[in-house]
Amino acid sequence: MRTIILAFALTGALAARLYAPPVPLIQLRVADHAAIAWAHRYHIDVALARKIIRAASRNGLDERVAFRLVKRESSFRLNMIGAAGEIGLTQIKPGTARELRPDITIGRLFEPDVNLDLGFAYLAQLRKRYHGDMWKAATAYNQGMTMADTLAGTSSYAIELLGPLPVAGAAAPALNAAPVPRTPRCQPHEACKVRKTASAA
């Protein structure tokens, strides 16, 4: 009797998994298109672009800010170590990482998912500290909170991450918009000459 009940339970569990509502295909296509577009813009692997998109979403950051931060901090180099001991894609310091996650190890900071999550979480924390002011949060991420508290105006780093300052009365730029894929440039120039010659023929 127990065997029969167990068999029914297993069959029910399998059926539930087989017939569970799938993730809408349109959502998968949109997410993949965004990752491909970002990867094309920054000349990085699509897999890394997906990791950045997901980490930005988990921490409530705009995708454009996330990609600009990683580009500015490490040029998308996983194993980069800064002059002051900053580590990885987001160039987060071990001490800052331990404040966010006390059990973190140096080795784990070289893992892309971990590094992105901690770096973006720190920027999100700074945004909260400055009551939603991303300009000050970005400055603090790069130059420290003391500088952000005392700086009159906006740092060049903040402008690099957030874009040009909006003109009075104008709408702020849409930071969540994924880039439109562009036609790849010919590299090297010799390849361009070959293509042009072929098309002319």
Fill in the keyword field for this structure.
single chain, 201 residues, mainly alpha, Lysozyme, 10 helices, 60% helix, disordered C terminus
Detailed description of the structure:
- This protein has 201 residues and is mainly α.
- It has one domain: Lysozyme (Orthogonal Bundle), CATH 1.10.530.
- It has ten helices and no strands.
- It has helices spanning 2-18, 25-42, 46-58, 63-74, 94-100, 112-129, 134-143, 145-150, 156-162, 189-200.
- Helix 2 (25-42) crosses helix 3 (46-58).
- The longest helix has 18 residues, at 25-42.
- The relative contact order is 0.09.
- The model is unreliable at 2-20 and 167-201 (pLDDT under 50).
Secondary structure layout plus pairing:
Layout: H1 2-18, H2 25-42, H3 46-58, H4 63-74, H5 94-100, H6 112-129, H7 134-143, H8 145-150, H9 156-162, H10 189-200
Characterize this entry briefly:
The chain has 201 residues and is an all-alpha fold.
Look up the CATH topology. Lysozyme
CATH architecture: Orthogonal Bundle
Strand share of the residues? under 5%
Q: Measured on Cα atoms, how large is the radius of gyration?
A: 23 Å
Total beta-strand segments:
0
What gross morphology would you assign? globular
CATH class: Mainly Alpha
Number of domains in the coordinates? Answer: 1
User: Whole-Å distance between the termini?
Assistant: 80 Å
Mean pLDDT: 78
The main pleated sheet reads as: none
